[in-house]
Amino acid sequence: MDIKEIQSLIKFVAKSGASEVKLETDDIKITIRTGSLAGNSEPTYVHTMPMSQPAMQAAAPAQAEPQIAAAGTNDAEKKKAEDDKYITIKSPIIGTFYRKPSPDKPVFVEVGQTIGTGDVLCVIEAMKLFNDIESEVSGTIVKILVDDSSPVEFDQPLFLVDPS
């Protein structure tokens, strides 16, 4: 999450009338307390947890970068042309993406499955509310772009669907 997303989350919480909201993912922990409690003059707290492993991994492959960049442009162009024929289903909200309605239930959709308009594809949890995300198109699921139980941003691609 960047600072603009945190600021908009704080504004959303303040407008909602909630007195306290806690959001916790693998790499960030946020607690927002509003002044709506009587006599409460505590400030808003934002805690971030350091992400040491990704920084180390990014520094290691610096030597091979020129070769990868030259070879990767054709692959990227092919992938973009391939993805252009698919419809991208994006997240309508910020939250946590779940492929199952509950841990003991089967997933909503799999790659290769045919879906129709109105079929539930996933659930996104936002502020302890579970929102069903329904398909607005019919077709076949080509790719699931997000891992189960991972945070998603507004307008982040979730699924690729072949409408044919």
From TrEMBL:
Pathway stated in the Swiss-Prot or TrEMBL entry: Lipid metabolism; fatty acid biosynthesis
Function as written in the Swiss-Prot or TrEMBL entry: This protein is a component of the acetyl coenzyme A carboxylase complex; first, biotin carboxylase catalyzes the carboxylation of the carrier protein and then the transcarboxylase transfers the carboxyl group to form malonyl-CoA.
InterPro entries the UniProt entry points to: AcCoA_biotinCC, Biotin_BS, Biotin_Carboxyl_Carrier/Decarb, Biotin_lipoyl, Single_hybrid_motif
Domain Lipoyl-binding: 86-162
Name under which the protein is recorded: Biotin carboxyl carrier protein of acetyl-CoA carboxylase
GO molecular function: acetyl-CoA carboxylase activity
GO biological process entries: fatty acid biosynthetic process
One Pfam family it belongs to: Biotin_lipoyl
Bias (Low complexity) ranges: 57-71
Transmembrane segments: none
Organism of this sequence: Maribacter spongiicola
UniProt cross-references to NCBIfam families, sorted A to Z: BCCP, PRK07051.1
UniProt keywords, alphabetically: Biotin, Fatty acid biosynthesis, Fatty acid metabolism, Lipid biosynthesis, Lipid metabolism
Annotated spans, Disordered: 57-77
